[in-house]
Amino acid sequence: MTRALRQQRLPILAVVACALMAAAIASIAYVAPVDANQGLSQKIFYFHVPIALTAYAFFAWGAWKALRVLWKRDEAADLESYVAIHQGVIFGVLTLVTGSIWAKISWGVWWAWSSNQLVLFLVLFLFYAAYFMLRYSVDPGPQRANLCAVYALFGVALIPVSFLAIRLANDFIHPTVFTSNGPQMSGRMFFAFCVSWAAMLALAASLYRVELAGKRLDSRLRELREVLAR
Amino acid sequence: MTASEKYVAAAYAFVFVVVLLYVLIIATKLARLEREVAELTELARERRVAEPERKAVAVG
Prior knowledge:
The structure holds two protein chains of two kinds.
Chain A: H1 3-7, H2 9-31, H3 45-72, H4 75-106, H5 116-135, H6 142-156, H7 158-168, E1 178-179, E2 182-183, H8 187-229
Antiparallel strand pairs in A: 1-2
Helix pairs in contact in A: 2-8, 3-4, 3-6, 3-8, 4-5, 4-6, 4-8, 5-6, 5-7
Chain B: H1 3-50
C-alpha cells in the first residue's frame, strides 16, 4: 500500500461507513419484510444484533492487543487495547438499550433477569466498565499496561460464554436466530442483516481509528510539551 | 403512530444520538488539540527568537 493511500485510509473508511449505513437503513426499510410474528418491532434486530456482535469484536480485539502487550512487549498495543475496550463499552451500552426497548415491546418488560443471555451480557459489560477504574487508578507506565492487559485477557473468556449462553442453558426467552441449521430468517431479511452488520463494522472501525488517532496525537503533544519545557 | 413504531423509532434514534454525541466529543477534543498545537508552536517560536545567533564555523 502506498503512503498516500495509507494516509487516506481513515477518510476512505468513513465514506464507506456512511455509504453502508445508508444502504443498511434503506434495506431495513424497503428490502426486509415485516415479520409475521413480531411485526415492526423485529426491525430493531437489524441494528441490535450487529451492535452486539461489534461489541464482542471490540472486546476480542482489545484482548488480542493486550496479548501483544504481554507477549511482544508492544507498547503501542496498550493504547490500542484501551481504545478497543472503550469502543466495546460504548457498543455495549447501545446493545443493552436497544435490546431493552425491544424487550419492552415483545415481553412487556424492560429487563428479564431470568434470561441468561441478558444477564451474561450485563456481566460482560460491567466487567469491561470496571476496566477503566483499574486503568485510572494506576500511574501510566509498564505496570499499568501489564495489569490492564491481564484484565482484558480475563474478560475475553466471558465472550464465548455470553454468546453461547442461550444455547448452553436452553434459554427460551431470548430468541435464537442463528442455529446450527443456519439463520432462521428469509433471504431478504438475512441480506438486510448482513448489510447492517457490514455498516456497523465499518462505522466501528472508523470510530476506533478516529479515537486512536486523537489519543496518539494527545500523547505526542504531551511529550513535545515536556521537551519544550526543559 | 402505533406504540411499536414509536419504540422502533426510539431505538434507532438512540443509536443515532449516541453516535452524534461521540462525534461531538471527538470534535471538542480536536479543538483542544488544535489549541495545544498553536500554543506549542508559539512556545517553540519564542524559544527560537530568544536563542543567540549561532556563529558559522568552518569545518575541516
